[in-house]
Amino acid sequence: MQEALRPYAIADKLRTLRLRRSMGLAQLAEHTGFSTAMLSRLENGRLVPTLPTLTRIALVFSVGLDYFFSDPRKRHVVAVVRRNERMRFPSDPNPLRHLGISRALTFG
């Protein structure tokens, strides 16, 4: 199981989140309810976290679970759309004019 999770570098991401906030293991333990020993094992890769464990840690740092399972180098998605395939938005502020419908039309 640990080998399957190694590419995600969950342990490194946990430590990075904690250190970015200048937070010690004891402080993180207070916020999560986990022991400092357990958190240390998680950060050193000696313990595989469960999803509920990751969820509690993610809540402390205001990140989603996807943070632990995604590669930051692959987060940016770029789409190329050819000129003739692009959607055109009407330049007219009253897009209903071509249908013969006035803005002054009220419902009531």
UniProtKB/TrEMBL annotation:
GO molecular function: DNA binding; DNA-binding transcription factor activity
Keyword entries, A-Z: DNA-binding
One GO CC term on file: cytosol
Highest rank taxon of the organism: Bacteria
CDD domains from the UniProt entry: HTH_XRE
PANTHER family in UniProt: BLL2473 PROTEIN, HTH-TYPE TRANSCRIPTIONAL REGULATOR
The protein's name: Helix-turn-helix domain-containing protein
Organism expressing this protein natively: Occallatibacter riparius
